[in-house]
């Protein structure tokens, strides 16, 4: 068994699609109308047949509450792995990404956290 799709709640699918592709560099794989929303998936440019990230609309009250509470508590919604966190941190800063935590060494890991402008904190990590 393997993970093929994971999702993240977003407040606005268009804004999220723009942020995740233009600022972070993910590649749009699927964009299919589904009622009033869309099935939008993204993949890493380095692994285009790998795990897909769904930009899931947070229109359900439980999703909105969950997203709001973990954001307020400073809990990242998900984590992305990077090969060189300092290089990635610099690239993202140059793309206008706002970090809430600079790269910080924690044991064997170095991590940083940024705001995705769509209601989530996202953590990047280098092992």
From TrEMBL:
Top-rank taxon, per record: Bacteria
Gene source species: Brevibacillus panacihumi W25
Name listed for the protein in its UniProt record: VOC domain-containing protein
Domain annotation VOC: ranges: 1-127
InterPro entries: Glyas_Bleomycin-R_OHBP_Dase, Glyas_Fos-R_dOase_dom, VOC_core
